[in-house]
Amino acid sequence: MSALSLRLPESVHRHIKEIAKKEGVSINQFISSAVSEKISALMTEDYLKERAKRAKKEDFRKILANVPSRKPIHGDEI
C-alpha cells in the first residue's frame, strides 16, 4: 500500500469527515472507495466505447427483429 499526501479545501474535508462518520468508515477508507468507484466508472466507459466501435448495425437490427411487439407494461409508457 502506498501513501498519498492530498490537499483539500476545508469544506470538502469537512464533508468527507461527516460522510465517513455517517457510513462508519475511516476517512482513508472512504476516499479509497470513492477513488475506486471513479476508476471503475471511467474504465467501464472506455470498455463500452471500445465495444461500440466493433458493433455492427446489421447485427443490432437482427437482435431487435426478435423482440416481440406488445404494449408496454403499466408504468413503462413513454
User: Helical stretch count?
Assistant: 3
The strand count comes to: 0
Biggest beta-sheet profile: none
Category by helix and strand content: mainly alpha
Mean pLDDT: 95
Strand content: under 5%
Q: Element order, helices and strands?
A: HHH
Poorly predicted runs: none
Integer-rounded radius of gyration: 22 Å
Task: Please report the distance between the alpha carbons of the first and last residues.
Answer: 49 Å
| Quaternary state of the chains | single chain
Residues in helices, as a percent range: 55-70%
Shape: elongated
How would the blueprint of this fold be written?
Layout: H1 10-23, H2 27-54, H3 57-65
Helix pairs in contact: 1-2
Short description:
This protein has 78 residues and is an all-alpha fold. The chain has 3 helices and no strands.
Description:
Helices cover about 65% and strands about 0% of the residues. The protein has about 80 residues and is an all-alpha fold. The chain has a domain at about 15-65. The mean pLDDT is about 95.
Which features would summarize this protein structure in a list?
3 helices, mainly alpha, 78 residues, 65% helix, elongated
